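Extended Data, panel c. Modelled sequence:
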Amino acid sequence: MHIDKENSELCWISLILRIAMASLFAVAAYGKFTGLENYTAMIMGMFKDTFLPGWLLSPYVNLLPYAEALAAVWLLVGVKLREAWIFTAFVLVSLAFGMIVAKQATGASENYIYVVIACLGLYVSRYDGCALLGKCCKK
């Protein structure tokens, strides 16, 4: 990667997006881990009258905090960043889909905004040299 002034700015944009999204996912995962039983019951109740079967929803609900924690750590570490952003975007799309099914339009629209941010992160990740032990955004 050739670092010129423009690429340096794109590198910083990528780093800032990574930190922002990682903090979002870390806080979300922490909140779910600290109240896992209440969280699981609440989500299962939201989808009680939908077409999604409980046998499919239950594993998703139980794995979601781990997926969010993984996304947070992966984005912060910065290794295989393209794959990290793709993983993050798919987690966000699945959350938005769930909000649509649960008839939570506001939550769905917020999640789709995060999907766009993840796509932007994916786009600028090619300029990001800030892996855990790598060089970072030098001019």
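The radius of gyration is 17 Å. This feature is highlighted in the accompanying rendering.
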